[in-house]
Specification:
Layout (H helix, E strand, L loop, with lengths): L1 H34 L5 H4 L3 H14 L65 E7 L4 H8 L6 E7 L17 E4 L5 H8 L10 E5 L3 E2 L5 H10 L4 E7 L17 E2 L27 E3 H10 L10 H4 L7 H4 E11 L17 H37 L1
Parallel strand pairs: 1-2, 1-4, 2-3, 6-9
Antiparallel strand pairs: 4-8, 5-9, 6-8, 7-9
Bound molecules: 2-acetamido-2-deoxy-beta-D-glucopyranose (2 copies).
The site of one 2-acetamido-2-deoxy-beta-D-glucopyranose has 3 residues, from loops.
Protein name: Lysine ketoglutarate reductase trans-splicing protein
Pfam families: DUF707
Keywords: Membrane, Transmembrane, Transmembrane helix
């Protein structure tokens, strides 16, 4: 009796397992079927006959329940109808597409997975602000973000990998969090702020985390930038700790300034950096067009961006009129070791001391390297032009 009972139990157990396995198999198969068409078959280079039959199979699998419209696109024509499209004016790599389907630029708008696409956004942000942050600056960034209205997309680059701790802030839900450990601001900017990806934004703020924003309001700042036609700008800096350039110091008596006087001998030309056409890299603000140019100048390996500030003037014309400092919306530079805290304990030094020294050395080397590359590029261009 016992054995019969047990084997009966075993049988029903087996059949349950069989049913379960079958269902699992069906689900698995379904997902493979759904995901496969997204694989670019042309890249796999299957024989064309096979591609055609696969194509047909997928088309049938994914055919919607409503009948197809009588106007056929080339997709429905089979291999015979595969288009002879070649539009040389299309973006590079997309020449075989009809221009009407090409979307060469994007945005960082967060969308819903359901409903009507045109109802996804309650407000369409026109500006972008990015901060490179570690959790230790949480309170400072919270204060800063609150100075940026709903018209801004907020983008945080986390250099310490700690993102979930930001969830306590309401605004964090609508922010975009990019987490890559121990990288510098310009490393992120080069990789995640491609001009085509941020093309929706009129102005792009690329800011450090250690800025005091008590006397700053982003909407008012934008108004001033527009009023004075600034393509590249920064807020005036306080306090004067002796390390600040004359150009970027806040002036109490005006809204905006575009030039300054430095110590004798510093400026060969009053229209050139550091007397004009110059902002620092800690809190720059770019117009869409200026960023498109500046992005191209960021070198992939020179991650600290040193020297870049002196070269930004090449992106706008005339630079001494379109680069400036906004005095009436100003910030405080608090100078906190940030990335430095990410080091390892070595030689009895505090972790940040060791890293700080190495970072300083690298900054200086990168500055020299950038100058050399720029000079080399100028000379190569001019030599070629001279010949041609
Ligand atoms: C097919 O498309 C053309 C042009 O887009 C349009 O004029 C025509 O009415 C369409 N025909 C049908 C049956 O939808
Ligand atoms: C956002 O932009 C719109 C349009 O420019 C403006 O009317 C509105 O005041 C802005 N929002 C804030 C909070 O400033």
């Amino acid at each position: 009796m016992g054995t019969v009972h047990r084997s009966g139990l075993k049988k029903s157990n087996d059949s349950a397992r069989l049913i379960f396995t079958t269902i699992l198999g069906v689900i698995f198969g379904f997902f493979i079927g759904v995901s496969l068409p997204m694989v670019s078959l042309s890249k796999i280079r299957l024989p064309s006959s096979l591609i055609t039959s696969l194509d047909v199979a997928f088309t049938q699998l994914r055919r919607p329940s409503t009948p197809p419209p009588s106007n056929k696109s080339l997709e429905d024509e089979g291999s015979e109808g595969v288009p002879k499209i070649y539009v040389p004016t299309n973006p590079r790599g997309a020449e075989t597409l009809p221009p009407g389907i090409i979307v060469p630029q994007s945005d960082l708008y967060i969308r819903r997975l359901w409903g009507e696409p045109n109802e996804d956004l309650k407000v369409t942000p026109k500006y972008l602000v990015s901060f490179t942050v570690g959790i230790n600056q949480k309170m400072n960034i919270d204060a800063a973000v609150k100075k940026f209205s709903e018209n801004f997309t907020i983008l945080l680059f986390h250099y310490d990998g700690r993102t979930s701790e930001w969830e306590e802030f309401e605004w964090s839900k609508r922010a975009i969090h990019v987490s890559v450990k121990r990288q510098a601001k310009w490393w992120y900017a080069k990789r995640f702020l491609h001009p085509d990806v941020v093309a929706a934004y009129e102005y792009i703020f690329i800011w450090d985390e250690d800025l005091g924003v008590e006397h700053f309001n982003a909407e008012k700042y934008i108004q001033l930038v527009k009023k004075y036609g600034l393509e590249i700008s920064q807020p005036g800096l306080e306090p004067n700790d002796g390390l600040t350039w004359e150009m970027t110091k806040r002036r109490g008596d005006r809204e905006v300034h575009k030039d300054t006087e430095e110590k004798p001998g510093w400026c060969s030309d009053p229209h050139l950096p550091p007397c004009a056409a110059f902002v620092e890299i800690m809190a720059p603000v770019f117009s869409r067009e200026a960023w498109r140019c500046a992005w191209h100048m960021i070198q992939n390996d020179l991650v600290h961006g040193w020297g870049l500030d002196f070269a930004l003037r090449r992106c706008v014309e005339p630079a001494h009129e379109k680069i400036g400092v906004v005095d009436s919306q100003w910030i405080v530079h608090q100078v906190i070791p940030s990335l430095g805290g990410q080091g390892n304990q070595e030689d009895g030094k505090a972790p940040w001391e060791g890293v700080r020294d190495m970072v300083r050395t690298r900054c200086k080397n990168e500055w020299a390297e950038f100058q050399a590359r720029l000079l080399g590029a100028d000379q190569a261009y001019l030599a070629k032009k001279g010949k041609g």
